[in-house]
Amino acid sequence: MESLELIRDRILSALPQAQLEIVPNGSANNPASLRVDAAHALAVAQFLRDDPALRLDYASNVTGIDCPDVVKPEKVKITREYQGQSIEVEETVQTKIPGYFEVVYHLYSMALKHGPLVLRQRTGNRSDQIEVASLTPIYRGAEFQEREVYDLFGVRFQGHRDLRRLLMWEGFQDFPMRKDYVEPDDYEYEPTPHNEVLDKTRRHYPPEVNHG
Amino acid sequence: MVDFASANEPVVSPLEMPTGFHFTPSSEGTVGEGLLEVSMGPQHPSTHGVFRMDLVLDGETVVRLKPVFGYLHRNHEKIAETITYLASIPYTDRLDYFCSLTNNWAYVLAVEKLAGITPPERAEYIRVIAAELTRLQNHACMMGFLTQDLGAMGTPLMYAFREREKILDLVEALTGARMMCNYFRFGGCRTDLPAGWLEQTRQVVAHFPHFLDEFESLLITNEILMARTQGVGVLPRELAINASATGPVLRGSGVDYDLRKVDHYGIYDRFEFRVPLGDHGDCYDRFMIRLLEMRESIKILNAALKDVPEGPVMDPKIKIRNFKPKSGEAYGRIEGPKGELGFYLISDGSTNPYRYRIRPPSLINLTALEDMCIGQKIADVVVILGSIDIVLGEVDR
Amino acid sequence: MAVDEALRDELRRQGIVTIQLETLYNWGRKNSLWPLGFGLACCAIEMIAASMARFDLSRFGAEVFRPSPRQADLMIVAGTVTKKMAPQVVRLFNQMPEPKYVIAMGACAISGGPFKQGYNVLKGIDRYIPVDVHIPGCPPRPEALIHGLMLLQRKIAGQKLTGPDRPSHLRADENGEFPVPAFGAHDLEPAQNQSVWQPPKLVREPV
User: Which of A34, A39, B84, B225 is the least buried, fewest Cβ under 10 Å from its Cβ?
Assistant: First the structure.
């Protein structure tokens, strides 16, 4: 398959408005990925599928990733008025880097037997801009997997014809694969050597209740 | 957080009844006059576990089919994010519980890709042998279950399980467990072969073609089997590709895509084998693909058992405990007995994966189930589902 | 009124067998258990293997797997019970006619097993329905299932037809129905059936 840079340039010549970015992969022997904006994701996917040199006709794996908000402490120098003089004070400011969800598609070609091309879409944040474009009009195989991402991460797919929960029941309110999901507390005491289960049990029975 | 509760009205109310039939009045909603809504599963003798389908029927003909998942959603992915890379291997056993060895392989392959590990030669041979033995027993049982769904109560399944027990004996000698093997490690295999294991395996493999001959003579020209499967549940080639079908389901529709040939993973390049392809994409083709694949697996096994090299089975430099791959991501996939089984791992440099995703072949092969079933009779739905060969542990994870 | 030994032996020589009704009744019941053909997860495969030729569950009279709960009197909960599946399991158990028994097969059905930490995994089916025999293992071997079945047979053989400890199906005040949990916003509601299962009290030694 062609290099990712070449593919990006070819997409850009066909779709000049598309915003593409190559995301490097920390693992050296694995492919980097191509991030596309939600507005052009469908057109880019169609290009990738129909281009005679690529023919990525097979969406193998679709999944979500949760990247929570990061709060970074940063030291900033600020000038303050103090008793008529202006002095420089160093203060720690908490800068909040908003988190996002990512949806990752692994595209292969069954016709030319190459791949993968890793395509990513990113949401604006984790609270209200959580929409990406559904690629189901191009790849039917993404149907259940996008529903699963909706179910477990809460990412909404524009253009998905049947976006319902896949694994959990209707009426379930949470999105369990999010990093900040709090599971229901049903850890009653059970004799187990499993440390994490024991920790959760301790939280279930606060010590002040059970002394005696 | 946004409230999605009202965003998408369910087309079919999914959680009303566990099993049985109920009539929907014709005045209501989507189900029109004379149409019958049937909820099949999650407790149903032929849904292979806790799978459920909501069917709309016109008489006996299927008008609509919506699969309902999640009755065996065991949160494998979430649990795997809280435990180490090594500790996830036993969980992979429980994905597709017929084929724990191939599940192990797919996972360790992804970790090996992530960390850039190459297992020793002997381990590669053991992996191929174990994976092909798994394929043999999976396909044999799948054919047994399919014929049971066709109404052959028990007999072919008994034959298949008889052969399966022979293979399980080998697996137990090798790994210590019948089903939950927990055998492969990133960087090789857990233990070396026990004494005399290769000889035993050669005997079982040498006997297996007799079982296939017997099965073939009993089944493939059987009139009932042909009538019930030929032309039933046709999956066209283009749809199979677009719906991301893999494995025997895809090849039954005539698409030449076998990851053992495409990805050249392991040492499959060293063995001569052919990839059987179907012509019509119906249930009979999918049935026959399995039978022919078993013949090819026996070829691979015979070749692999001949020249297993001496040497270590585990790369001694790999620290499987406290294993910290560099941050990055990798997607590893193998040709499992059910299709492409892939693991997508993201590492942030710590001992636990940041994201751990399983690409389940059984779930994605069901994408086109509705298209295959529409227009067929309800009794054929059971056969079509059986011919896809799903395992719920993998569908719901 | 008991028949004395000598008379019983004499009668047996004449081809007449005397037996207590209770023993006969339990003997009949224990040797024809009809399990519900109901597989949840991995353990179901071992359950099927147990009914196949090598292990041959029919030697113990329990090979007639019924697809309908109305025809079954033994529920083998073989596998992980998820929260999404738990109401269905309870409903199936309610649909079974009395007398009915439950075998919790495998670590998952007992306590959640390896998947205990899952948000969708019920931490033991005994939170909703009473369990007669627990079979540990992940999955238990077919021999273990057979052993569990024999334990259940022994339990059935020891049941009294009259008296205060007679089994629940001989009590008029018990209908054998258990409340079906509902799907809540975060968890099943209620999280356990208090009449069947109470969380153990954790008594801590004061530090």
Answer: A39
